[in-house]
Design a protein that fits this description.
Blueprint (H helix, E strand, L loop, with lengths): L9 H7 L35 H11 L4 H18 L7 H7 L1 H4 L4 H4 L4 H16 L7 H7 L4 H9 L2 H11 L5 H18 L8 H12 L15 H9 L11 H5 L6 H6 L6 H14 L5 H22 L10 H10 L12 H21 L1 H4 L10 H25 L3 H23 L6 E4 L2 E6 L2 H8 L7 E4 L4 E4 H21 L3 H5 L6 E5 L5 E7 L8 E4 L2 H14 L12 E2 L4 E2 L8 E4 L2 E4 L2 H16 L12 H14 L4 H8 L4 H7 L4 H18 L10 H13 L1 E2 L2 E3 L19 E3 L4 H21 L2 H25 L16
Antiparallel strand pairs: 1-2, 2-3, 3-4, 5-6, 6-7, 8-9, 10-11, 12-13, 13-14
Helix pairs in contact: 2-3, 3-7, 7-9, 10-11, 11-13, 17-18, 17-19, 22-24, 24-26, 24-28, 28-29, 29-30, 33-34
Organism: Antrihabitans spumae
Protein name: Tyrosine-type recombinase/integrase
InterPro entries: DNA_brk_join_enz, Integrase-like_cat_sf, Integrase_catalytic, Tyrosine_recombinase_XerCD
């Protein structure tokens, strides 16, 4: 989904971004639009002030035929030069700029009132002066002129092999004849209005032309988006005219590139220069470990939400050592966003800030000269993170509830998109063979084939006309091809997601190379789908079911319609802010001159729109919609609840941890009971009878010995049976230690000894020893406080007294 934005200088725009304004992917273009610097070409000598006879002779030399047009152009040049001589200036360009034609306040019709023949001759003369570079019009004036044969005249006058090669490349491109003509015309127009040869047409100059054209022209009947020149840009890049490091598409040039770490920090205007440099150095160090999307989140959390808020609380703050009061004031502001809404997950910010402090502490050991000055105790306490686990459980419960709600609605959604695609496919087929004004009925709805003026024009130009129909349900004429295409891609997206369980970014990364086959020793051929590395950075291969293979085959057949290979398209990654090189991606669409892979945002909007349409007829969809990732959770739930081992499900989903797969699976209560009963029956049936034996005296003695080994100086160890001590008998720090109340006095002795050791370490400068002793003292005092709380609690169990019974 494109966003219209006001274009200003990107550097200024980035500096002026407010903390409350989110920079969009179009607010800071990769290529900075700038008009080329015009330079005199003088291919036929200096014609700036040439007399009429010279201009006439040069035009005859460039375009000797046809004779009738040559004579008409000669008369037009005479009229044009006489008209320009009435205006001030020493050159033809100066007189043109001072004239009504050059300003744009008058047209050819206003100047020549002697009839169509005189107007045609004058118009031909204007085109000749443009092509010979005697006159350089502005873009609005050139567009208002509406030339017909100007492209051929300019190519003949330029006599430039590079321009001829570009035109040949355009004619071999995969596009309609209309868009090919526009691609050639766009380049010729840019050369004329900017006064440059083809060699000087840079990406910056052509983008300037595209932006200027956006506001002064409209191509009726052609879907070109907000900008013209998409096909021209692709061809210019493919033939090597544009630099190799320039974006391969015009849309890629308009999108914002990745922020540098300096730009990430400077967006938030950190007041202290030293702290600003600290954040830049920190992000530079982290950028080698995390992807760009994660780095931007870290920068927002640490710089904007943490430090900028601290600057408001304590403007004099110059290091990372926070007082308890300042930290609590900042923590209180964390719950509410700047727009007044409640922050749903403040623990993400706390985690980033905590990692920031711990990273600097760890790096200070290896590089003290760079990081030790900034090393400080982390102000975030353990109690601040305790509710995180509770929040994660609530979130998982809500997710499972959503999956249980969506599971019975999935068949309804699938049937709806399938029926809609079938309906529009049949409408398109019947309308394509119908005559103008012919009526037909499909699925109880009436349609009428309509030929628009645009269809007639496309047919005359040699292009395939659109299939337009009129129906009472719309009340207007619609393009049946667009509706059928939208219905197909909605159907293919939902079918692919629900049959494969892939992530949305993995869907957009599918290419022709992702489809493989494997032949088993018995001759059976299995279709495979290779999923490119995404979130887990791990490639995986999944076998395709018959349904999934059918969908992928339909996609390939559609995008290769009329050609033998899958077209090369680019893919824009919203998270990484990068455009890929042209590849044979599967989920690509041609929109006018553009050929690109659908974005993840567009796919999400498409699925949401389908659910909104269903809510009009099915009340169960009211306020409910499917997200792309919901199909992945439904896929995992269906696999595991139907008996597939969870480790195989994790491999199919690309999970590195089984716990992640368990979090995806929404288990139903009846499934829990059924699977547990089946598990017990299988264990009882498979377990050998000899294993069901009574415990021997030796086994019992070993069991009792285990409890003896758990006894330590301060109490007892709570580790499981038959497990060794994993904490190397560091009992004070061990969470499994259960302190005996009788050993409270011993804890006091140990605390006193630790404090003496800390004083000695401080005197000797043993910084590492001090840190270890402080950690041990923290554990000791925590265990002592827990023991005091336990001793203050008394509970009456109410065990009945046996009094005997008289029989």
């Amino acid at each position: 989904m494109s966003r219209r934005t006001t274009r200003t200088d990107p550097g200024v725009k980035a500096r002026e971004l407010s903390d409350t304004v989110r920079a969009t992917r179009f607010s800071r273009p990769t290529v900075i639009a700038a008009p080329a610097i015009p330079r005199p070409l003088h291919r036929y000598g200096d014609l700036d002030s040439a007399p009429f006879e010279t201009l006439r002779d040069i035009s005859r030399q460039c375009w000797p035929t046809p004779v009738g047009r040559r004579r008409s152009r000669d008369r037009g040049i005479r009229v044009l030069t006489d008209y320009l001589l009435q205006h001030p200036g020493s050159t033809w360009q100066q007189r043109w700029d001072a004239s009504e034609l050059g300003i744009g306040t008058a047209s050819v019709v206003d100047i020549t009132l002697d009839g169509d023949y005189a107007r045609a001759a004058f118009s031909q003369a204007v085109g000749a002066m443009y092509a010979l570079r005697v006159l350089r019009p502005t873009l609005p004036v050139f567009r208002a002129w509406k030339p017909r044969k100007y492209v051929s005249e300019l190519v003949a006058a330029e006599n430039d092999p590079a321009l001829v090669a570009y035109i040949a490349a355009v004619n071999t491109a995969t596009s309609t004849e209309t868009f090919k003509r526009w691609a050639i015309f766009d380049v010729c127009t840019a050369l004329t209005t900017q006064g440059i040869p083809f060699a000087d047409l840079t990406p910056e100059a052509f983008l300037h032309y595209a932006q200027e054209t956006r506001g002064c022209t409209s191509r009726t009947g052609l879907h070109v988006g907000h900008y013209v020149g998409h096909l021209a840009w692709q061809v210019l890049h493919s033939i090597g005219h544009f630099p190799a490091n320039s974006p391969p598409t015009l849309r890629g040039a308009l999108r914002s590139p990745q922020f540098t770490t300096t730009e990430m920090v400077d967006r938030h205007n950190v007041a202290n220069p030293a702290v600003r440099q600290l954040f830049i150095d920190y992000l530079d160090r982290r950028s080698t470990d995390v992807v760009y999307s994660t780095l931007t989140v870290v920068a927002t959390h640490v710089v904007k939400i943490f430090w900028k808020a601290l600057e408001l609380i304590n403007p004099a703050q110059s290091d990372l050592r926070l007082s308890e009061d300042h930290y609590r004031q900042w923590h209180a502001t964390l719950a509410i966003r700047e727009d007044g809404t409640v922050r749903q997950n403040p623990w993400l910010v706390l985690t980033s800030v905590k990692a920031f402090y711990y990273d600097i502490q760890a790096w200070a050991v290896d590089e003290p000269e760079r990081w030790a000055h900034w090393s400080a105790p982390c102000p975030i306490q353990r109690s601040d993170m305790r509710s995180l686990v509770k929040h994660q459980r609530r979130t998982q419960e809500q997710t499972h509830h959503t999956i249980r709600t969506l599971q019975p609605l999935l068949p309804v959604l699938v049937d709806h998109v399938d029926e809609r695609y079938t309906h529009w496919r049949n409408v398109l087929e019947r309308a394509s063979t119908a005559a103008h004004g012919e009526h037909f009925t499909q699925d109880g709805q009436s349609y009428t084939r309509v030929y628009s003026k645009g269809d007639d024009r496309l047919a005359r130009d040699g292009d395939t006309p659109g299939v337009h129909v009129r129906s009472p349900q719309f009340g207007r004429t619609i393009d049946a091809g667009l509706y059928e295409d939208a219905a197909f891609w909605t159907w293919s997206i939902i079918e692919t997601l629900r049959h494969s369980g892939m992530r949305i970014e993995e869907l957009t990364e599918l290419s022709q190379l992702s489809v493989r086959q494997y032949q088993r020793p018995n001759g059976e051929v299995i279709a495979l789908l290779v999923i490119a590395p995404s979130k887990s950075d791990r490639e995986r291969v999944i076998p395709m079911s018959a349904e999934l293979f059918h969908v992928i085959a339909c996609v390939i057949r559609r995008i290769t319609h009329g050609q033998r290979v899958v077209p090369l398209a680019t893919r824009y990654d919203d998270a990484e802010r990068s455009t890929s090189e042209p590849q044979p991606f599967l989920f690509q669409r041609r929109i006018g001159q553009r050929l690109e892979v659908m974005t993840t945002n567009a796919i999400g909007v498409r699925i949401r729109k389908v659910c909104e349409d269903l809510a009009e007829t099915d009340p169960r969809f009211a306020g409910i919609h499917f997200r792309p990732h919901d199909f992945r959770r439904l896929f995992a739930t269906d696999l595991v609840n139907n008996g597939l081992p969870i480790h195989i499900g994790a491999a199919l989903l690309g999970h590195l941890d089984l716990n992640t797969t368990r979090g995806y699976v929404a288990v139903f209560e009846e499934d829990v009971t059924r699977h547990y009963q089946a598990h017990l029956q299988r264990r009882r049936a498979l377990r050998p009878v000899e294993e069901y034996q009574p415990v021997t005296d030796q086994e019992w003695a070993e069991f009792e010995t285990h409890f003896d080994k758990r006894k330590v100086e301060l109490g007892s160890c709570g580790r499981p049976y038959a497990t060794p001590c994993t904490h190397e008998h560091a009992c004070i720090r061990c969470p499994m230690l259960r302190i005996d109340p009788k050993m409270l006095s011993r804890l006091a002795v140990i605390e006193t000894d630790l404090e003496k050791r800390r004083e000695r370490a401080h005197a000797e400068g043993w910084v590492g020893e001090i840190e270890g002793i402080d950690l041990t003292l923290t554990f000791l005092r925590t265990k002592r406080d827990e023991l005091h709380r336990m001793l203050t609690r008394t509970t009456t169990l109410g065990i009945p007294v046996f009094r005997g019974i008289d029989l």
